[in-house]
Amino acid sequence: MTTPTPEVLPAPQFAAAWHAMAQAERILIVTHVKPDGDAIGALCGLALALRELGKPPLAVVDGSVPEYLRFIPGSDATVPRVTAGDFDVMISVDASDEERTGAPGVYGRAHSALVINIDHHPTNTAFGALHVIVPDAVSTTQILFDLLSIADRPISQAVAGALLAGMVTDTIGFRTNNVTPRTLEIAQALMRAGASLHEIMTRTLGTMSWRNVELWKYALQTVALEKGVISAAITREAIKLAHMSQPSDSGGFVGFLNSTEEARIAAVFKEVEDGKVEMSFRAKPGFDVATLALSLGGGGHRLAAGVTLSGTLEEVQARVLPLLQQAAADGAS
Ligand code: AMP
Ligand code: MN
Ligand code: MN
Question: What is the pTM of this model?
Answer without folding.
Answer: 0.93
